[in-house]
From TrEMBL:
<dbReference type="InterPro" id="IPR028614">
    <property type="entry name" value="GDP_fucose/colitose_synth"/>
</dbReference>
<feature type="active site" description="Proton donor/acceptor">
    <location>
        <position position="137"/>
    </location>
</feature>
<feature type="binding site">
    <location>
        <position position="210"/>
    </location>
    <ligand>
        <name>substrate</name>
    </ligand>
</feature>
<dbReference type="InterPro" id="IPR001509">
    <property type="entry name" value="Epimerase_deHydtase"/>
</dbReference>
<feature type="binding site">
    <location>
        <begin position="106"/>
        <end position="109"/>
    </location>
    <ligand>
        <name>NADP(+)</name>
    </ligand>
</feature>
<feature type="binding site">
    <location>
        <begin position="164"/>
        <end position="167"/>
    </location>
    <ligand>
        <name>NADP(+)</name>
    </ligand>
</feature>
<feature type="domain" description="NAD-dependent epimerase/dehydratase">
    <location>
        <begin position="7"/>
        <end position="238"/>
    </location>
</feature>
<comment type="similarity">
    <text>Belongs to the NAD(P)-dependent epimerase/dehydratase family. Fucose synthase subfamily.</text>
</comment>
<comment type="function">
    <text>Catalyzes the two-step NADP-dependent conversion of GDP-4-dehydro-6-deoxy-D-mannose to GDP-fucose, involving an epimerase and a reductase reaction.</text>
</comment>
<dbReference type="Pfam" id="PF01370">
    <property type="entry name" value="Epimerase"/>
</dbReference>
<feature type="site" description="Important for catalytic activity">
    <location>
        <position position="108"/>
    </location>
</feature>
<keyword id="KW-0413">Isomerase</keyword>
<feature type="binding site">
    <location>
        <begin position="11"/>
        <end position="17"/>
    </location>
    <ligand>
        <name>NADP(+)</name>
    </ligand>
</feature>
<protein>
    <recommendedName>
        <fullName>GDP-L-fucose synthase</fullName>
        <ecNumber>1.1.1.271</ecNumber>
    </recommendedName>
</protein>
<comment type="pathway">
    <text>Nucleotide-sugar biosynthesis; GDP-L-fucose biosynthesis via de novo pathway; GDP-L-fucose from GDP-alpha-D-mannose: step 2/2.</text>
</comment>
<feature type="site" description="Important for catalytic activity">
    <location>
        <position position="110"/>
    </location>
</feature>
<feature type="binding site">
    <location>
        <position position="203"/>
    </location>
    <ligand>
        <name>substrate</name>
    </ligand>
</feature>
């Protein structure tokens, strides 16, 4: 890839898009194109068409999406389905119309069946029912992946698809109603430690298992795949290791110095019991994660921005 190539990073204000911009800049790419959602509403077909006609990007990294944790996914079900379908349809179609050389689409590990064999291989897609709490988001992401596959088979487009596991890192969402579990626990335990609170509430039973990847590792994997992968098959991106929510709570309690009690709120849903990705395809392509969970969490906890990154609930609308 030419360092002057024009690369459009869609969703650069999000945690993933921002990490992609940092990684590309660090690698020396100097012709990045970005737009905030206020400047360009990716759900608007005509606006996206005008943008592509004006900018003519050569590469597109599609990290723009409506995202959130289990409660947000389960509550704003229409938004998660509609917004994601519109964003990805517009960006993929315009990438085709304007002859983009390569597009990278970001999916999610929640696209796989709720009870997929573990660890989950890319081939397990569409082999069983989805987890109900995030079905609309998963359906949208599956459609995005299939869109890329279909443009490749019908038009020969070099559109690749990447399925990251649960992510965390700088720029995460710390709103306790809409966030994922990891930022929620960092915030809850840090605040409880600071206020000497007697108990912290963790949602669900604590038994679900989740895999966590630092977003800087994901960005590095994406750059690796941009440079070295042109295949039709999706590629899982993860660490290949998972832990229970209870173990995560214990780790966060330790790292934040919280000595108090942990209470599980059984009224909150557990979601998928387990979604550990099989990362052998990625390892076969020569990429391996670098940032372990403990190290990554320490990094986030010591970074200055983490508590100020709270997104208001209104950001979802
Ligand atoms: P998921 O991976 O799509 O299920 O999304 P989340 O990251 O939101 O939730 C993962 C698991 O952590 C679920 O079993 C949640 O019930 C559990 N969990 C425990 N405490 C929390 C919390 O404070 N916030 C969130 N979002 N999840 C929590």
């Amino acid at each position: 890839m030419d360092y002057n190539a024009k690369i459009y990073v869609a969703g650069h204000r999000g945690m993933v898009g921002a990490a992609l911009v940092r990684r590309l800049r660090r690698a020396g790419f100097n012709n990045l194109v970005v737009r905030t959602s206020a400047e360009l509403d990716l759900r608007n077909q005509a606006a996206v068409a005008d943008f592509f006609a004006d900018e003519q990007p050569e590469y597109v990294l599609l990290a723009a999406a409506r995202v959130g944790g289990i409660h947000a996914n389960n509550t704003f079900r229409a938004d998660f389905l509609y917004d994601n379908l519109m964003i990805q349809s517009n960006v993929v179609q315009q990438s085709h119309v304007h002859g983009v050389r390569k597009l990278l689409f970001l999916g999610s590990s929640c696209i796989y069946p709720r009870l997929a064999p573990q660890p989950i291989r890319e081939e397990h897609l569409l082999t069983g029912p989805l987890e109900p709490t995030n079905e609309p988001y998963a359906i949208a992401k599956i459609a995005g992946l299939k869109l890329c596959e279909a443009y490749r088979s019908q038009h020969g487009s070099n559109f690749i698809t990447v399925m990251p596991t649960n992510l965390y890192g700088p720029g995460d969402n710390y709103n306790l109603e809409t966030s994922h579990v990891l930022p929620a626990l960092l915030r809850k335990f840090s605040e409880a430690a600071a206020q000497a609170a007697p108990a912290v509430t963790v949602w669900g039973t604590g038994t679900p298992r989740r895999e966590f990847l630092h977003v800087d590792d994901l960005a590095d994997a994406c750059l690796h795949l941009l440079r070295h992968y042109d295949g039709a098959q999706p590629v899982n991106v993860g660490t290949g290791k998972d832990i229970t929510i209870q173990e995560l709570a214990d780790l966060v309690a330790e790292l934040t110095g919280y000595p108090g009690e942990v209470v599980f709120d059984f009224a909150r849903p557990d979601g998928t019991p387990r979604k550990l990705l099989d990362v052998s395809r990625l390892h076969g392509l020569g990429w391996h994660h670098r940032i372990g969970l403990r190290e990554g969490l320490q990094q986030v906890l010591t970074s200055a921005d983490w508590l100020h990154a709270t997104q208001p609930v209104a950001a979802l609308h």
